[in-house]
């Protein structure tokens, strides 16, 4: 326990450990093929196990069957709201999801009705993070089909008091953007970026295009591949607007899009050339290569190769006249 943490507050918080946050809830929809299809289309998962009369649901959909939607779950208890209010009183007024863990115990099939209970499992000691100081709260949701446990979902969040904004120091260099992780599986993609080429992997066994780059084909399992140079044309398939707390090298809010290329594969990148609140599904975009963090070309577009500490990244510019 940190030295400045009141023993009394931690004791009051931990009194909620083991208390139910939701009891005898029933999923709003039974496991069903349309939801499975939507999930697989969004994930680009073409596994035949998720289709037809013997279909099973992707294991990673486990939480989807318990989501309450905008109306929530009617059988939720007051325990979590009370815990949250107690932390608000202590100055921990912000909250962020940090991670989750899932355990899959049996396959789910269309027609299965999911019931579930949620418990407040643990409340941590007060922790100091880059966002601020506060408490990690872990909930555990047990999901069942009939009397059989189908899976467990642990969800962890940080309820914290934000740090006071730091005053900017004069002549402090702007933090660098995080560098992409380059490995033997995706090195060819980044070599293409250095040449201002957007390369897509193509399976030489069945011809399937894929992105991100992988060591083998999801469709036929073939390990051999070559590349296709993308035209760079695409449309916004989906997007989010990032409103996270200030983070080095980034200035929220900004738009991050899942772009569907003309060749049919999808990739994630930033949308530029249009205000974040003007990005929309179906917006035509075209790839451009933008250099970051290199003082000689900071913010420039079309600067190839790696120079100094700069990093060249593919981003997507809204088509002229679409802003």
Describe this structure in words.
- There is one protein chain.
- By secondary structure, the protein is mainly β.
- It has 2 domains: 7-162, Roll (Thiol Ester Dehydrase, Chain A); 187-318, no CATH class.
- It contains 4 helices and 14 strands.
- The protein has helices at 7-14, 33-43, 79-89, 187-194; strands at residues 20-26, 94-104, 114-123, 127-128, 132-145, 148-162, 199-203, 209-210, 225-229, 233-242, 254-261, 266-272, 284-292, 311-318.
- Strands 1, 2, 3, 4, 5 and 6 form a 6-stranded antiparallel sheet that branches. The protein has a 5-stranded mixed beta barrel with strand order 10-11-12-14-13. A 3-stranded antiparallel sheet has the order 8-7-9, with helices on one face.
- A hairpin with a 4-residue loop joins strand 11 and strand 12.
Largest sheet: 6 strands, antiparallel
Order of H and E elements: HEHHEEEEEHEEEEEEEE
The strand count comes to 14
Strand content bin: 25-35%
Enter the CATH topology name of the largest domain. Thiol Ester Dehydrase, Chain A
| Relevant CATH superfamily of the largest domain | Hotdog Thioesterase
Could you give the topology of this structure?
Blueprint: H1 7-14, E1 20-26, H2 33-43, H3 79-89, E2 94-104, E3 114-123, E4 127-128, E5 132-145, E6 148-162, H4 187-194, E7 199-203, E8 209-210, E9 225-229, E10 233-242, E11 254-261, E12 266-272, E13 284-292, E14 311-318
Concise description?
This protein is mostly beta strands.
